[in-house]
Amino acid sequence: MCIRDSLNWGVEKVGATNPYKVAVDQGSLNQLDAIWRFVVYNLIPPKDPKTATWDELPLSRLFPGSKKAIIRSSWSDEAIIIGFRNLERKAQWHSPADANTFYVYRKGLLSGNTGERDAGASDHTGNWQCSTIAHNNLLIFDPDNITFPTKSDVDQGGVHSNGGGTETQSSMVLGMPYRRAFLHLPECQQQGGIPIFEATPEYTYLLGSAAEAYRSRVDEFYRSLVFVPKGGDKGYLLVLDRVEAKKPELIKKWVMHFVSKPQVNGDKVLTEVPEHIETFDGDFIYATNVKNTSGLYVKTLLPIEHLIRRVGSEAYGGYEFWRDDLQRNVGVRAGHLEKALATMGGSEVSDINEVGFWRIELMPKTQQKRDLFFNVIYISDTNETMAPVQRIEEGSRYGALIQDKEMTIKVLFNKQ
After folding, report:
1. Per-residue pLDDT for 181 more than 80?
2. Strand order in the sheet with 193-199
3. What is the DSSP letter of 98?
4. Angle at 97 between CA 148 and CA 174, to 5 degrees
5. Which of the listed ranges 36-40, 43-47, 342-346 does the model predict with the highest average pLDDT?
6. Peptide bond into 303 cis (omega under 30)
7. How large is the average pLDDT for residues 29-35?
8. Of 103, 385, 365, 47, the residue nearest 259 (C-alpha)
């Protein structure tokens, strides 16, 4: 489904009739010549990043047809790259559960989607790689409505556990092949979008909307992102989520993944499995890429009263793909992690960690209908000291004041 959106965007840019819809409606792919001509014979003259202006080659761009945005700090090999995706409604194994999902890259992946597609309808693919829990996203649990399939159910094509993530739409239930369903039925396409996008050389701001993806449990889910670059391909990413559930007893977890074991400050207040599932009362997280050449520094500002739960292990450690609702590790099939390493071109065993084996879950201490999650993420070199970050409140707005040595940054968001 990601390919379909990208092709639609390309066709719209050249003003052609969309041959993909025609091909799908007529059950033939012979009319895709116009798309391939666009892909192969792109008539837009290339620009040299070293000399191009912002208007000619902006570092941030929204691709509205595919509901994706890319943000860069520069065109250098060491640039920060931030991606944001809000794809169509999840269709079982055929699309990832990306609803207000972001990833961060600098000299290698720092935080992003995790897991390995080890087979089309495997336990790992369905219950991890294509599930919301594998992404930088939001989990909202209904304690009265959780499915617990057995592994044999999964292997035989049975239902996969939702696990608090986005809601799956089976197009077969709709009485037509999934290709036509996703092109024509609103209930398959209403996953959300990116209604606001503003990019300048000084900052990039976007707003993602994804309440539709959790429709039976959520009335509001807006994610605001602000990226402010600084010298040396470093920068600050501010992420504010406004989330309102349909009932206060629903459990919310703000999830972020890492390719190395994240360090969490504060006291350890709960140990479920030593070194693998532990909860802290801190407000700061630090992690690096697999080469230890760049780092992420995460300062939590909201909820004020919160806990941070760290979950994971090394490869084959038994907790790298742990799901609480299933009470087990959703491991990959034998040999597929090594296959992923070869695909990524990794030359060291540690490179396999880019598959992503660690995550944190930010949880409010008190359950209520509406919560705000606010985190300031500094993307830089390793072993730096993050500048002081202060949560501020001005009337109907929350914000952050960052007192960096190079500049002072003040960002305010509406509470509503």
Report:
1. no
2. 193-199, 204-209, 218-230, 234-245, 370-380, 295-302, 284-288, 263-264
3. -
4. 75
5. 43-47
6. yes
7. 54
8. 103
